[in-house]
Every structure is written in structure tokens, then in C-alpha cells.
Amino acid sequence: MGDEFIAESLDSPLAKNFLMTLSERKKYQESRERCEDNQQGGCVKMKLLPNIVAGLAVVIGIVWILQGAGLLGGSFMTGRTEWFWIGIVTALAGCVAFLWLRRPGR
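RE: above sequence
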């Protein structure tokens, strides 16, 4: 009688959901441990988006510097010194963010 109750209990949707949750948690924990054990300093997937954003900030900053300096034409920003300084700040922020993301132990 006890074995039948256990078998029926495991067939219930609640039990399946609970068991699935436990297995998903185990998979998540295993993947997280693999990421922490990676000698590259963490998960590549988790760092990809922030690195892309930092790289875009550097590129956009360089474009704004060139436009502000009047070296890259075709925009309302061309020849305006405020865009030169905004570009410097943006490019430096992107560099700092990129270096921050690349530091060891992260």
C-alpha cells in the first residue's frame, strides 16, 4: 500500500513540477560552478554583452571626438567643441568599463 501511494504521488503534476525544479536547480548550479572554474575569469556569455556595450561606447566616443574636432563632417555636431569633450568622456568611460570587465577575479 505504501509503494502505491508513492507511485501515485510521483505521477501528480505537483510532484513532477517539484522534481523538475530540483533538476533545473542542479543544472543551474553545475553550470555556475563551471563558469567559476573557468580560467578565463568567468563565463564568456555573461561578459559578452557588457564588453560589446563598452566597445560601442569607445567607438561612438571616437566618432564624436572626430566630429567635434571638425575632422568628420556631415552632422550638426561637426566643428562643435562640446561634442569633442562629450566624445572624450564617452570614450574614456568605455575604456574604463572595458578594463573593469577584464580585471582578474571577475
